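Input record, target 12 of the design panel.
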């Protein structure tokens, strides 16, 4: 259903600045850009160097040869894929309304694009979507073929401990809304009303486990949660985001099309620092 004068108030047309505002709002709202490291670029493809093995070192006697060798290096290539949204506004709304229209339409497009980015980030969507966490074959699987019922936080402690074992530093716990609700109800003991989860001292609504924030991702299912090192995840955004309008396609109905598009890709620089926990809630 197109936005009309009855649902909007004010006259506007998207400006060139909308493209950069779109990027800024997506970065603020998307789980991917808040967990990983958002990087803006004009390049078609970005390459991130990755250390696969250390250079040799050893204790040596005076005058003896030093160990010789090179560190193992390769790179992770990230080519951002196009993500876009389209909405329709009646000509009357464009001509007769106030600046509030830009916020209504802009917020809608930002939510749609952010949601799709997060679905790709945690999922394994078909091309042309970028590959996400669920597509990785070399994450650290804590539970294997035996999912945990999350009766306590022990398995999360195991997952947190697994990340430093792989050379990372855990920063976030990614959970589905169902898992977040389940964990929020856990108590410190039988008959206790004290929640097992902690709270962030700076954000009362953020729950924590062992000091790490729980990040609720609507695109996740209840079958898994992830402990990640966000510093090892690159979220690449092309700077050439655009917001365009067209009066041509819907000429016969006197409507205006508003299109927002950008490009995003993910670089998982050390997938082993992502710890997966299989979940089977009772």
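The sequence produced for target 12 reads:
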């Amino acid at each position: 259903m197109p936005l009309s004068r009855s649902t909007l108030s004010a006259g506007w047309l998207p400006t060139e600045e909308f493209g950069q505002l779109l990027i800024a709002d997506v970065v603020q709202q998307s789980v991917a850009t808040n967990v990983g490291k958002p990087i803006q670029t004009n390049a078609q493809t970005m390459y991130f160097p990755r250390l696969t093995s250390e250079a040799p070192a050893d204790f040596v006697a005076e005058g003896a040869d030093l160990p010789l060798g090179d560190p193992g290096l390769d790179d992770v290539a990230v080519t951002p894929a196009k993500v876009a949204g389209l909405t329709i506004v009646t000509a009357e709304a464009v001509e007769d309304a106030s600046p509030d229209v830009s916020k209504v339409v802009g917020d809608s497009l930002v939510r749609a694009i952010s949601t799709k980015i997060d679905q790709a980030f945690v999922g394994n969507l078909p091309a042309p979507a970028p590959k996400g966490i669920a597509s990785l074959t070399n994450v650290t699987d804590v539970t294997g073929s035996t999912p945990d019922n999350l009766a306590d936080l022990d398995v999360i402690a195991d997952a947190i401990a697994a990340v430093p074992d792989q050379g990372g530093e855990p920063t976030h716990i990614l959970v589905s809304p169902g898992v977040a609700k389940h964990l929020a109800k856990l108590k410190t003991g039988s008959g206790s009303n004290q929640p097992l989860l902690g709270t962030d001292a700076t954000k009362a609504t953020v729950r924590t486990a062992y000091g790490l924030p729980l990040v609720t991702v609507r695109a996740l299912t209840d079958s898994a949660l992830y402990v990640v090192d966000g510093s090892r995840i690159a979220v690449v955004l092309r700077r050439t985001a655009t917001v365009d309008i067209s009066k041509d396609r819907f000429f016969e109905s006197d409507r205006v099309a508003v299109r927002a598009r950008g490009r995003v890709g993910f670089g998982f620089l050390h997938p082993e620092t992502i710890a997966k926990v299989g979940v089977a809630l009772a």
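Residues 17-51+69-278 form a domain with the Major capsid protein gp5 fold fold (CATH 3.30.2400.10).
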